[in-house]
Amino acid sequence: MLELAILGLLEDQELHGYEIRKRLRDELGFFSNVSFGSLYPALSRLERSGAVEAIDADGADTPVPMTGSLSGERAAMRSTRTTAGRGRRGRKVYRITDEGRRQFAELLDREPGPDDARSFGLRLAFARYLPPQARLRLLERRRTQLEERLRRARAVQAGSARLDPYTRSLMEHTTESTERDISWLDRLIDAERSRFAATPAANHTVRAAGAADLSAAAVHTEGDTL
Amino acid sequence: MLELAILGLLEDQELHGYEIRKRLRDELGFFSNVSFGSLYPALSRLERSGAVEAIDADGADTPVPMTGSLSGERAAMRSTRTTAGRGRRGRKVYRITDEGRRQFAELLDREPGPDDARSFGLRLAFARYLPPQARLRLLERRRTQLEERLRRARAVQAGSARLDPYTRSLMEHTTESTERDISWLDRLIDAERSRFAATPAANHTVRAAGAADLSAAAVHTEGDTL
DNA sequence: GTCATCATGTAAGCCGTTACATGATTGC
DNA sequence: GCAATCATGTAACGGCTTACATGATGAC
Fold it and tell me: Are residues A63 and A121 in the same domain?
């Protein structure tokens, strides 16, 4: 999971460990604070497996891509400033390799065992790197899981009448949240499908109608990289 | 965390490992499927530390308390049936001790490091065993955390404009969920406070007004054990 | 020159998992 | 008698944490 997150960040631009940690915290929100004790070993593993390579920080090759967020551009500025000065020794900047991109795609797409909220969230945050069908699969898999959870929660609520008030309130609240999650997913799924319909690809389940109410869908298509 | 859950279940009634696993899955919903590889060692630890004791299954001492849920009563029936027959050798039934109750209270009340959703949910499910002030503390601590998370999420959304659509949708949805969680907590907190006000205890922050709209509060006071 | 922050790393441990091994009980 | 389930346990490992150790850079 951590490695997936790291590779995902590096798809966008070269970064060093400390900065990766910040992005994970501030941008992705997962791993509210990954510890260095897990971050650096993960980077070492990735380097050993050839997924990333360390480039001794000088600006010669740093492309400063315009893909990123504001904070991304701030970080780019910072490294530019460094370049002018003196290589900022001690900083180990990593770049993703072709092998890394391959690994990333595989990690992102392959069936995750316990597709918990964290794992799903992480994958969704990188959904732009997935081919459309894989994106749809991700969303639908998650939907199925939530549906299943809901089904079981309801069975419990129906089956045993006498739960204590706190447990009961918790279960009701959780159920409600799950329902909302599902309808959110439905909006995302609809948006994906309508994009399928727009692109005349090898997809025959067109669902021509139903694309009308998509203006309010949760995916705002004014974004880039789509 | 697992030990807390186990002790909590044993507060209610004696159980054996296999049954504990089922309760964890069906009733509490946490540890969707605790593995035996963690459950049994946990029970051993608890036994070694004197928190629980194994009683060689015969019905002599099994009180079959009326505290439980339907499934609880089903389980009780089952063990009664067993009792009539022959001690169901190989089944190791555990009972909580006074030391165990002490440990449980301590685990339940003491500051949890990363009070994540799981930990909070578990504690709330056992809130009936907490003294009122501790209960209130639990709720307010959680509220503070969610508020903080919200604050940070908003800072990110405001700060960096160009997030990709999927990440953005995820963040918006998460933010919305957190807001709902907070207002749910507010209802619980209000209900707690109004119960404080009703009981003339050593609490002077009475907040006499505001008890009016509590009929709709999430804690349904028709429950038992309150 | 010293303090906060940036930056990288190692070691020990926690808390859970999967996989494996074993045997009793119940239903048919 | 045989299969499904109940029931307990061990071993190896996974992935993350905290605590510890070290040093460079920048601000004042």
Answer: no
